[in-house]
Amino acid sequence: MAPEKPTMNIVFVGHVDHGKSTCIGRLMYDSGVLPENEMKKLKDEAEKQGKVGFEFAYVMDKIKEERERGVTIDLAYQKLITPKRQVTIIDAPGHKDFVKNMITGASQADAAFLTIAAKEGVQPQTKEHLWLLRTMGVQQVAVSINKMDTVDYSEEAYNKVKKEISDLLKVVGIDPEKITFLAVSGLMGDNIYKKSDKMSWYKGPTIWEQLDLFEEPKKPLELPMRMPVQDVYDITGIGTVPVGKIETGVMKIGQKVKVLPGRSGTGIDGEVKTIEMHHEQLQEAPVGFNVGINVKGVGKKDIARGDVICDAANPATIAEEFTAQVAVINHPTVIAKGYTPVFHVHTAQVPCQFIEILHKIDPASGQPMEGKVDFLKNGDVAMVKLKPVGNLVIEKSSVNPHMARFAIRDAGATVAAGVCTELVEKKLVAEKK
């Protein structure tokens, strides 16, 4: 059965300890998704761990290690049914070493809440989070200024943070006039699900209302089907089950598919046998659905995270080399020819070498700049030529923008982000069976 309400994936991002998980937990509890007895268990556990007030965060931080450390490591998913839509909430970690997860999280999101604590305001990572959301193509962002209880619900404190963020939004090319700013307290439950009675000056929506105020994302249904594999499970009675989000197109039962690059590096042919979402069997899964599937002809050894399941009639490309527009966000020194960091494209991680820096781009006008370029530093935007070390499935933005974006990471930090504009396809020699 097809879900009646449209689905939307919304990611919560923000600096560590600024209260994202608490806001989400509070939302789950106040909206009735989380039963009272569950909440009581979490509350008791929070007290036992000496973390009073962490019970809401525990809703998302299900992993024991996260509870003990009080931080969010993995991406957690929760489903909410709002009056207008089915929302999958993604809680993306704020810690630096977890930016990788934040990237795979953002690349699946239709909209984002950027959470900023009212007292601490904008942090160095706030800019990084915004650049990533922007490069990953998350078009809609709402800013929730959290922990208003710590500043006595002061309008002045709220306005100060709002101004800081507005300046930052302009830097990354987002118009602050088009952004919704929310004044909230996750811990106290102000403007999360229920309207607060402590901020008569605040006229905006609650987080719950904002979930329905985001515009319906344009669904790339007409593009060929692509499902990057996030995980592969072995399930008794079913067999191998790849899990991931349909990035473009529609997957149907009986559809002929190709897994690229697959273990062979040349692709593996199969046929979709079953599609399941939230424990329901589906006949088809359109773009935006997070599904688990079973593919005839594809075993556990054939497929891994980072592979892409494609429509066999119109498969994706594996790049021999590609040209991309890259923005350097946060590199300790400079980027020059020969540099080979790890590229995160959809769910894949593949090292790619900078072969040539073609030209810089004037960030204000978007026009190419004259002159030879030997290296790139923070803040530079440039067209570069890259060569994957290994098999990389990527598409040109003109063909499929959803499969063209990437982030570049090195030594545990995101150093740059970009989008593929041209590519030379790898000639595949199929293995003899």
Please provide a written account of the structure.
With 433 residues, the chain is an alpha+beta fold. The chain folds into 3 domains: 7-213, Rossmann fold (3-Layer(aba) Sandwich), CATH 3.40.50; 226-311, Translation factors (Elongation Factor Tu (Ef-tu), domain 3, Beta Barrel); 319-425, Elongation Factor Tu (Ef-tu), domain 3. Helices cover 18% and strands 34% of the residues. The strands form 5 sheets. Strands 2-3-1-4-5-6 form a 6-stranded mixed β-sheet, sandwiched between helices. The chain has a 6-stranded antiparallel barrel with strand order 7-8-14-11-10-15. The longest helix has 17 residues, at 155-171. The protein is globular and about 65 Å long. The chain starts with 6 loop residues before the first strand and ends in an 8-residue tail after the last strand.
Brief digest:
The chain has 433 residues and is of the alpha+beta class. The protein is 18% helix and 34% strand.
Would you tell me the structural class of the helices and strands?
alpha+beta
CATH architecture of the largest domain: 3-Layer(aba) Sandwich
| CATH fold type of the largest domain | Rossmann fold
**Number of E strands:** 23
Using only CA atoms, what is the Rg? Answer: 22 Å
Main-sheet strand order equals: 2-3-1-4-5-6
Helix content: 10-25%
Q: What is the CATH homologous superfamily assignment of the largest domain?
A: P-loop containing nucleotide triphosphate hydrolases
Distance between the termini: 38 Å
